[in-house]
From TrEMBL:
This is FtsK domain-containing protein. InterPro entries: AAA+_ATPase, FtsK/SpoIIIE/SftA, FtsK_dom, P-loop_NTPase. GO terms for molecular function: ATP binding; DNA binding. Keywords: ATP-binding, Nucleotide-binding. It comes from the Bacteria.
């Protein structure tokens, strides 16, 4: 231990000691940024330089040094030596060199990181017989020298001190307080309890202006005959002899020692202190590094590196879902959570020993869309696409439900057990990027009586592990994950967080991640640093997407099968492509969840509701044609009657046996039909188009009576109802409320008066294409897509004059000219 005031020659003393003791290995610690050891780092003996230590780096340093102690103990034990001196006395080539730990400005370090000094002193005390030695230097000794430090520093040096108290504190004498400031390097030394001696430190900062010309010296080997002269390399400083800036002595000495080490073929010294994890890692490099000793199970995914200073090594980081179940990655924005998901998916996909299928819900910035290129990925559902999100979750939950009984019958407790007889069984991984946003959207009220997406995800997490189905979620804070779900996420990785208090919830040290680069993490409750690798080492998503494209091409070339693809329901379905029967009913569309046909009831009151442009007339005609197809197949045709207030709508479809158009005809036909329905005479199919135009006419009360009579009649009566017109025909709306069956097309959360009492939740009209909505029957709500009737224009070409998507009179649409006279073919008979 040596102390000195400023400008007393501390740095010169450092350099002189290190240069003259070039028989050992040095580990240098400088709390001033590394300036004190600038020239010494080039010595072949120097095995590390550490500056600006944080508490986390201090713990890493102490762990590395303790590992060095264990290593030396193992070497001595294998050699049967009690200490390093015994090995050196036997000239054992396995004897490790002495390791000298040199710490500059340790007083500042002790103030910033109090645990460093006692920790490193303890290491030096235990490592003395193993060849570990400690040199401490500071300019401010007051209050730093503790009892344990004084007891374990046998040699103390004091250069010029600021006052007598400091000198006495270091060497037990006042001498160092009276050194002449004009002689830097003048000092006093005390060894153990001995006397204080004065000395002058050597100076290596001098410069040689030119190379001195001495006599030529020739060296030959001595033998029976004269040997050839030795080839002596030139002085390494000779190259700079003619330069304007002369070379300093310390630089000459350093370069000469380094040249001698290279000439002697001396390898690099064993480093007890590994460099910190790199900020950027290439995933391919890490995977190749893991090939020699694959970590984890057969399909463990290598995703980065793990720093293990207590073992003096850095090993591949592998995620073995068989062992950890489901995973949460928690970190603030910009910490590399999404990149970690991309790397995990790429590594899982490249692990071809067992099949894997991956599905993703992207509630983040959309970067997961690049995963769609991989054949192992079945779907990437953006959060805005609620239908696809729900479909993906239902698919994964269906896999869990299907595997449970199969695994139980096979007496398989895990996927690995089941694969012994069925090696083709894939592991399923569901990614959810941005869990907080997903949870907020997923907990909105649903229009159908089924679990919310958040509940489905929770069930997958709880039940999926034993059947090889796993979930990986990312979020910005640990509190975003509810406690019930957090219990199933048994492996959690903490990245840099926005709030220091959040680190405590993950049981990790805040100082380890405060200034961490993207991709740096700690395992919850652990202390090992982790660095997630990047696809092709690219920090930008564009580069990672390009890398995924290349991986996908390679996988397809290797014959990797495409995972089952999950898609949304189609927006256009030709009615002729559907089976005419759906569970004994006429099929008019599909259930957008199961993609199975949905059927129309055979009797009662039905209402097709929606705003203008939602496909009202298209849906009405699809229902009429569906009933007609079924009736034709069963040879049981019923009369089809249209009541309308316009001549350019459904009247043009040509599917009617009777058409009543206008106030008089509609009123008379409605009166007639209401009486027949009350008396149970006949079972026609009746369609009422644009009843809102009956406002203020004598036909309105007749339509109200028809609606009431239809509820318990054997006939099916369909009313078209355009939302937004309820105020004009409130009497009819009251009669149409709570029909036995109905269609709500393009519903909206903020919609006013509708015929249905069932809530549809937080739905937006913009999320529904024409013909998409909900079917309501006896309180049951089913999401549906209505088919496009035969002979009706495509949705992309519908330009109806009322905005409903129906062709207008005299308009040319989709190549068809509708030029029918206003009253042609319309009759009440």
């Amino acid at each position: 231990m040596y102390r000195a005031s400023s400008e007393a020659g501390t740095c010169d003393l450092h350099a002189t000691i290190l240069a003259c003791r070039g028989l050992r290995y040095f580990l240098l610690v400088d709390y001033k940024g590394g300036a004190a050891f600038a020239e010494c780092t080039g010595l072949p003996h120097t095995v590390g330089l550490v500056t600006d230590l944080s508490p986390h780096l201090v713990r890493r340093a102490l762990a590395s040094l303790r590992a060095e102690l264990r290593h030396r103990e193992e070497v001595l034990a294998a050699a049967g030596a009690k200490d390093l001196l015994a090995m050196e006395g036997r000239s054992d080539p396995a004897a490790p060199p002495s390791l000298v730990i040199v710490v500059d400005e340790f007083a500042a370090l002790a103030a910033e990181v109090p645990e460093f000094v006692p920790g490193v002193v303890d290491i030096a005390q235990r490592g003395r017989s193993l060849g570990l030695h400690l040199v401490l230097a500071t300019q401010r000794p007051a209050g730093v020298i503790t009892g344990s430090l004084r007891a374990n520093t046998n040699l103390r040096v004091a250069l010029r001190m600021a006052d007598e108290a400091d000198s006495t504190d270091v060497i037990g004498a006042k001498d160092a307080a009276f050194f002449d400031p004009g002689f830097p390097g003048r000092g006093a030394i005390k060894i153990g309890p001995g006397r204080v001696s004065r000395f002058q430190c050597g100076y290596l900062g001098g410069r040689t202006s030119g190379r001195e010309c001495g006599p030529d010296i020739e060296v030959r080997s001595l033998g029976f005959a004269e040997e050839a002269p030795w080839d002596i390399p030139p002085d390494p400083a000779s190259a700079g002899a003619g330069s304007s800036e002369p070379v300093r002595d310390i630089e000459r000495l350093r370069d000469g020692i380094a040249l001698a080490a290279r000439a002697a073929g001396i390898g690099a010294a064993r480093r007890p202190w590994l460099d910190a994890l790199p900020k950027l890692l290439d995933l391919d490099d890490v995977r190749r590094r893991a090939e020699a000793a694959p970590p984890g199970g057969a399909d463990a995914a290598v995703v980065g590196l793990r720093d293990e200073p207590e073992a003096q090594r850095q090993t591949p980081l592998a995620i073995d879902f068989e062992e950890v179940g489901s995973i949460a990655i928690v970190g603030a924005s910009g910490t590399g959570k999404t990149s970690a998901l991309l790397s995990l998916t790429a590594s899982l996909s490249a692990t071809t020993s067992h099949p894997v299928q991956i599905y993703a819900v992207d509630a983040g910035g959309g970067a997961l869309d690049a995963l769609s290129a991989l054949p192992t990925v079945g779907a990437v559902a953006p959060l805005a696409d609620a239908e696809l999100v729900a479909r993906v979750l239902r698919h994964v939950l269906a896999v869990v439900a299907d595997r449970g009984p199969r695994y139980a019958s096979a007496r398989a407790g895990t996927l690995s057990d089941y694969r012994r007889a069925h090696p083709e069984e894939p592991r399923i991984v569901l990614l959810v990027d941005g869990f907080a946003a997903f949870r907020q959207a997923a907990e909105a009220p649903l229009p159908i009586p089924e679990p919310s997406p958040a509940q489905v995800l929770g069930e997958i997490i709880v039940r999926g592990r034993s059947v090889g189905v796993h979930v990986v979620v990312t979020c910005d804070r640990p509190a975003a994950i509810p406690a019930a779900m957090s219990a199933g996420l048994q492996q959690r990785y903490a990245m840099r967080l926005a709030d220091r208090h959040d680190y405590a919830q993950l049981s990790v040290s805040a100082d380890a991640l405060e200034n961490a680069p993207p991709g740096r993490a700690l395992t919850a409750g652990g202390h090992h640093e982790l660095q997630f690798a990047l696809i092709e080492g690219a920090a930008d998503h564009a580069g990672q997407a390009a890398g995924l494209e290349r991986i996908a091409a390679s996988l397809r070339a290797d014959g990797v099968q495409q995972a089952p693809v999950i898609r949304n329901a189609p927006e256009t379905i030709p009615l002729r492509d559907l089976d005419s029967d759906a569970a004994g009913r006429p099929a008019y569309g599909i259930d957008t969840r199961s993609l199975e046909p949905v059927g129309l009831p055979g009797h009662g009151l039905g209402v097709v509701s929606g705003p203008a442009g939602s496909g009202l007339s298209t849906a009405m005609l699809a229902c009429v044609q569906a009933a007609g197809r079924r009736a034709e197949r069963e040879a049981a045709m019923s009369e089809r009657i249209l009541l309308t207030f316009t001549s350019d709508g459904l009247a043009l479809a040509g599917a009617w046996d009777r058409i009543a158009c206008g106030e008089e005809e509609v009123g008379a036909a409605a009166r007639e039909l209401a009486g027949a329905l009350r008396e149970k005479r006949g079972a026609p199919l009746v369609a009422v188009e644009r009843p809102a135009e009956a406002e203020g006419t004598r036909a309105l009360p007749e339509l109200v009576a028809l609606a009431k009579a239809a509820r318990r009649s054997p006939a099916l009566v369909l009313f078209e109802f355009e939302t937004g017109t309820a105020g004009a025909i409130w009497e009819l709306l009251a009669a149409l409320r709570q029909p036995g069956w109905g269609l709500a097309l393009q519903p909206d959360e903020g919609e006013g008066q509708t015929p249905f009492r069932e809530p549809f939740g937080r739905v937006r009209r913009a999320d529904f294409p024409p013909g998409r909505g909900f079917a309501i029957e006896n309180g049951r709500v089913v999401p549906v897509q209505v088919a496009r009737p035969d002979g009706w224009p495509d949705a992309a070409c519908e330009l109806g004059g009322d905005g409903s998507g129906d062709p207008g009179n005299g308009r040319k649409e989709c190549g068809i000219l509708y030029d029918r006279p206003a009253n042609a073919g319309l009759t009440s008979e």
